[in-house]
Design a protein that fits this description.
- The complex is a heterodimer of chains A (280) and B (312).
- Chain A is α/β, with parallel strands linked by helices.
- Chain A has a single domain, classed as Rossmann fold (3-Layer(aba) Sandwich).
- Helix content of chain A is 42%, strand content 12%.
- In chain A, the strands form two sheets. A five-stranded parallel beta sheet of chain A has the order 1-2-3-7-6, sandwiched between helices. In chain A, strands 4-5 form a two-stranded antiparallel ribbon.
- In chain A, α5 packs parallel to α6.
- Chain A is globular and about 50 Å long.
- The two termini of chain A are 32 Å apart.
- Chain B folds into two domains: 156 residues, Rossmann fold; 129 residues, 3-Layer(aba) Sandwich (Rossmann fold).
- Chain B has 13 helices and twelve strands.
- Helices cover 42% and strands 19% of the residues of chain B.
- Classes of the chains: A alpha/beta (280), B alpha/beta (312).
- At the A-B interface, α5 and α6 of A face α4 and α6 of B.
Chain lengths: 280, 312
Amino acid sequence: MKTITPEKIAELEEIARHLRMDSLTLINRRGAGHPGGALSAAEIMTALYFHVLRIDPENPVWEQRDRFILSKGHASAVLYSALSRRGFFSFSELDHWGEVDCPHQGHPDRLKTPGVEMTSGILGHGVALGTGLALAARLKKLAYQTYVLLGDGECQAGIVWEGAVTAAKYHLSNLTTIVDYNNVQLDGPVHEVMPLEPLADKWSSFGWHVVEVNGHSVRQVVEALELAREIHDQPTVILAHTTKGKGVSFMENQSYWHGNVPNNEQLSKALAELEEVANG
Amino acid sequence: MAELSMREAYGRALAELGAVNPQVVALDVDTSSSTFSNFFAQRFPERFFNIGIAEPCMVDVAAGLALGGLVPFINGFASLLALRALEQIRTCVCYARTNVKIAASYAGLSDFKDGATHYSITDLANMRVLPGLTVIIPADAAEAAAWVPLVAEYNGPVYLRISRAGAIPVHLVGSPLQVGKGRILRAGRDLTLVATGAMVGRCMFAAEQLATQGINARLLEIHTLKPLDGDLLLEAAEETGAMVTAEEHNIIGGLGSAVAEVLSEGCPVPLERVGIRDRFCPTGRDPDQLMDTCGLSVADVITAAQRVLERN
């Protein structure tokens, strides 16, 4: 396993901060979107798109590329922020996000946005889809890895577990799932809406190698993703413990900010807090 | 009936396709000995995936395989694919336009001994409303086999409706099949019978009996419910002035509804629809007897033809 330098960590942390600011700006401008789960996933998305994924923005359909599926498709703002910053398209293309002539949809659409591997929005599909992609890699003798990002509330959907047993049956070590475990869903705390604990035990008993990390530690996320490549007979799930709305004090841990839009004043306050992080 | 069942013809054709096209993979949901995807599984075990009793998961895994460049045929019971896995088919196959081939077996009333839970009399309605999905209904065993390589070559998702049973043979091996193009199986100018699936053979018998009464019925086979061959239907409506549809499906939402939509906008002639009259059907002794008692007999087609001519 490669070690990651402090300089690289600082660089990735800076990117994560920008993904947060870009996501909130996009959601404010569109007047729609899901800030809480975009902010909680910023380090995960940064680790993937700026360190781990072998991808080529010049050739989004390169056959050998690693695959990433944003199963929690409502966090599209952070995906679009990452893809544009990574060079798949310019950020200005998102100026008209939400208007009918803008190709980039409210939820990711693989046919319309370069770099989006799979259309998503309805929760629950990612693990089974990723299982198919990982099986295809095996059949085609391609070395790509498949990564799936789930929300924690999403794990309430039965099809997640249908996919989980299937990936385990076929020993898909080329499949890694990350759960953005931010503890909050649309109607309230996950443990009130429908408890998931013991979640690590559930995944483990379904045949997955389980790693638990602080999902806001770039180092821990990167190391877990790299460790997953060393597991050779089963799929890996990374339970990334995160904070919904991370980085913006008034959004943190509030289910209200699952799908509500910051107005201009709230956006300014949020961006100022995120700027402070950079200066402090 | 002694003829080969549609499902067995399909299963053998799928295995043959696997031999010539290494991109083809097959999935099933613990029904491979029923759908006959087991012929493929036995010859190509590394390209066969048994997902267990989880149709929605099978659809998503197949979508992933298609994203990875393979051509997955998913196999299961039509009632479960079209209902339990409907959301997956809509989102991950149709909207995402993944190249998944849905081989929906045990369609219509063909699983005569298992009853209404297993019958699939709503699948055509469920599938027809999904943008981007091509819906194909073979009329007999030979036609089911003939569609398999064509469906594999076709670029885009396809719903291929397969009966558990046999059907009256109407397809001449080697005669051309084209997606979206209906076929005139019998010439006639007095009225048009429009049939799909197992009702094509029954309508052929009906047309022969009508001929003995001096009524010359044209017979159209609509194997592609979507995209529907509207030109062929309108031409027939204009030339014969009356139409009867026949399908092994609920009277709501399937072929009869699709034809009514075309006629009402393009050439409104009298139309009678033969189908299951919006009810759950009982178990039976054999599929033919069951179809006869559920409003799908040759006599039902003849009665509908006489009725539509009286209205004309």
